[in-house]
Input
Amino acid sequence: MKITASELAKITNGKLHGLPSIVISGLLTDSRQFSYSDGLAFFAIKGVNHDGHKFIPQLYERGIRIFVVENLPDNFRSYRECSFISVKDTIKAIQQLASCNRKNFRGTVIAITGSAGKTVVKEWMADIMGSVRSVIRSPKSYNSQLGVPLSVWKLSDDYDTGIFEAGISRKGEMKKLLSVIDPDIGVITNIGDAHNENFTDNGSKAAEKLILFRNCSSIVYCRDYEVIRETIGNDPKLSSKKIADWSFHFKKAAYFITRSETDNRQTLLKIKHGKDESSFVIPFTDRASVENAVTVAVTCLYSGIGEDIIRKGLANLVPVAMRMEIKAGINGCMLIEDYYNSDPGSLNMALEYLAAQNNPRKALILSDFIQTGRDEAELYRQVGSLVKKTGIEKFIGIGEAITRNSRYFPDGSRFYHSTDEFVLRHAFSEFRDEIILLKGARVFEFERIGQHLEQQVHQTVLEINLDAITQNLNSYRQYLDQGTRIMAMVKAFAYGAGPSEIASLLEYHRIDYLAVAYADEGVELRQAGVTLPIVVMNPETSAFNVMIKYNLEPEIYSLSLLHKFSDAASRNGLVQYPVHIKIDSGMHRLGFMPEETGMLISELKGISSLKIVSVFSHLAASEDASLDDFTRKQAGAFVSVTDRIREATGSGFLRHILNSAGIIRFPEYQFEMVRPGIGLYGINSSGKLQLRPVGRYLTLISQVKKIPGGEPVGYGCADVSDSGRSIAILPVGYADGLDRKLGNRKGSLYISGKKVPIIGNVCMDMCMADVTGLNVKEGDEAEIFGENIKVEDMARNCETIPYEILTSIPSRVKRVFYRE
Output
């Protein structure tokens, strides 16, 4: 859809200021993620922690010329050759624009909602339908009040079917999404307990979700879900629709399903519809996957897709990658692996994420788009134009179609007819110090390319959920007064998570400072492209010149250190170099004692090479209610010292004393800045926040064997059982951070849906687990900690604290970062 600024103002009931004729071809809501600026309209959205209006000057400098705003900048007339459109609500404006685009679409729109399975059903359905129709789908799980209109905006006459998912968390939201999607066919997967906090019961939640289907002609649902069945049956408007219900139990359902498992972990489905019966095989046996596959099969049958097409599609179903992963690669590269789907809409989103990365050297490996119905040359002409606009330095196309249309791509691009040909012929050693986006349709098996490009380490990995860190950060922000700054602790390898990736994420979410333990940690962040101010908490005199070179700011905790760093700054010709003064208010580690305040003030007055940016202290027991009087005593001493320094020097420095627990328990001591640390990584030391676990520590079973009764396991023959048992040997030991105290049944792993004891003594590189009675095999996954085994519980079993567990995982364990 292409419209002018004046047309956009009319659609959104906005007021136009500036040029009316600028053509809009794309929408932008994230100031950091866009790969080109021509024709992009920026919608300045106000959130809990963000205000897009603040970034208008930066975006103007980067070429954006259309702005949809709730508040006009005071100097908006100084923005030359621009269009400003003022509206009451920028999210509503995007919804109005998408709704207008939907009304102009002449094809079929399918909407999917429910408590779980929406994204999987959408992906599988789009893959099968896309083999015979031209299909556009919402990228990833873009199902929110903002994600849905951004998806529907992509509808055009190039497609004959649109498949979109819609999610809600409270009443009143679905009515807005109805106006955007306005589906012809509605599909509801199920009703479960997600978002129960905003609904009185599942009945009210089902009624809210089904609002999406008020105007559609047909509804597909599972009759076995009583709450959905009754909600539709009791609503005259919904029950009057064409109902394509299916069931495992109700033979009167439009589609009656019988299922049986085969010997090779597959499920045989028989679907009876009237006098017709169809048989399909799917490569899954778990209930959720079976239900999702049946929903897809029934919707495809109802939509007129041929049985042979459905049969082939169901047989080739693969698990949907629900996330984009970022991994360390060979030769200093970073990989962004996105095998989620492959269509122009999802490519654009992946390129925007790629464009936001700090590394200027960017490569894209892209497969054919698996769809029919669109003019092939026009499709790849658009894709080639997008690649050129993004500034990709190295482009590689894989597939027959993209190779046929190689003329549309940048000079120097390379093309291969298949993944096999690429793996066989391409020199992987040429990838060096760049960030590589792997974007391929699932049938191209780009995982094989990823295996060649990944840094080769053993199969024990620590997965880091970047979205969970973002959510935890926002949870802390809700406790802060407006204007309170944040210094995030990323010392000790970001509590084991990996510093540069975490720091880049925190910088993206606009915190104010980062803090590391030693200068080399700060240097690593600078070399990774991090530009935020970085404080070094333990500055060593030998590292002063390096700190100055990389613009790292030292903690000053003694008169001796003050003099030495002042001398180093003077030798480098520096004036007003930023430093941070540490006060010992009672913890008695590093820091100036309160009685040294007078001497400190005297010395500071005579130093021009340094500037006090902040004065801070460290609480000893902020999480312990029994020591709250001591905490308040510390805070009182800190205030007394900082008042004296501020009065004597006239410096307007920042003050900070609160750590993760302190932010929640002592909001009165926020001062001008706070220092969240381990709480960002999901460890809840205050007990009040709903924090998400960030890390999931995983390994794979190396071997499974049966041990007769009376036979010992492990060093020292410490574990003997009277009965026979099955044991799993796993490649993780105390050299990987698995404490020896967890051996001999004191600790557990999570394997095949059950906690199993670690048996025998933990070895340096291995451990053993009792898996008797479980159907496990070599290569099955084992969770060391994560969703099912909490870090806090593991620490308790080791008689230590979560900090030690997290920071004990060595760098030889690969970190895999992902976005949900």
In short: The chain has a mean pLDDT of 90. The chain is about 30% helix and 25% strand. The first helix runs from residue 5 to 11.
